[in-house]
Amino acid sequence: NLSWVKNIKFVKLGKYIMECWYFSPFPKEYYPNGFAECLYFCEFSFRFFATKEELVRYQKKPNLPRHPPGNEIYRDSEVSMFELDGAVEKVYCQNLCYFAKLFLDHKTLYWDVDPFLFYVLCTRDERGFHPVGYFSKEKYSDMGYNLACILTFPCVQRVGYGRFLMAFSYELSKKEEKAGSPEKPLSDLGAVGYKSYWAHTILKLLRDYPGQIISIMDITRITSILPDDVQATLQMLQLLHYTGGADADND
């Protein structure tokens, strides 16, 4: 089973070296003997190389952009978000999928990136924009999915980027005036992350809601969280039997 045979031991991205977790179907020339010690990624273009020397030579090119392609659609004091069309920025998005598969056991999207939009989250400094995670979503989802795949890069996990990516996917749903949900089934890690995000979002809403009674559809209308996900979260929190507001401290 190829999904269990790790073919790349480490990847280097910017200043980080990360140990890989799973197989990813890179072109065979990058691991000709069935295994490679390290692949070297350019953090700006996501092109990858078999040797550090090749990467250094590539990054010495004049006028190499120091940010992802696509449009910067969000910026605050710390991070920026870039939106990429998989049909337009095909190489970047395919390479991002190769990279993501090293850390996602269930991921199957490698080549067919055309139907997807990619949202790449970056930190910024004087050297440029440094990717820390991303999510993808179908341009047109019959199932109402607002997210297909999500990854916070292992070198920067547990600092809140995953929750930021989830929240951003729902902000896009609000902008589209739709309820959304991540593609099912969720991975084990994904399920933990989303249950936490839904609980946090709904409890905050219940705490701040001015009325005495709120329905599942009211919560969906305000948060864009799908009614099924709202109901499951309220059941998990044992709040469905409440008819008034709920104190966010009683979780």
TrEMBL record:
GO terms for biological process: regulation of DNA-templated transcription. It comes from Spumella elongata. This is histone acetyltransferase. It is an enzyme of class 2 (transferase). The active site is at E183. It is found in: Nucleus. GO terms for cellular component: nucleus. Gene3D superfamilies: 3.40.630.30, N-acetyl transferase-like (3.30.60.60), Winged helix-like DNA-binding domain superfamily/Winged helix DNA-binding domain (1.10.10.10). InterPro entries: Acyl_CoA_acyltransferase (IPR016181), HAT_MYST-type (IPR002717), MYST_HAT (IPR050603), WH-like_DNA-bd_sf (IPR036388), Zf-MYST (IPR040706). Belongs to the MYST (SAS/MOZ) family. The keyword Acyltransferase applies. Keywords: Acetylation, Acyltransferase, Metal-binding, Nucleus, Transcription, Transcription regulation, Transferase, Zinc, Zinc-finger. Residues 3-251 form the MYST-type HAT domain. It comes from the Eukaryota. One of its GO terms (molecular function) is zinc ion binding. The keyword Coiled coil does not apply. Its EC number is 2.3.1.48. PANTHER family: HISTONE ACETYLTRANSFERASE (PTHR10615), HISTONE ACETYLTRANSFERASE KAT5 (PTHR10615:SF219).
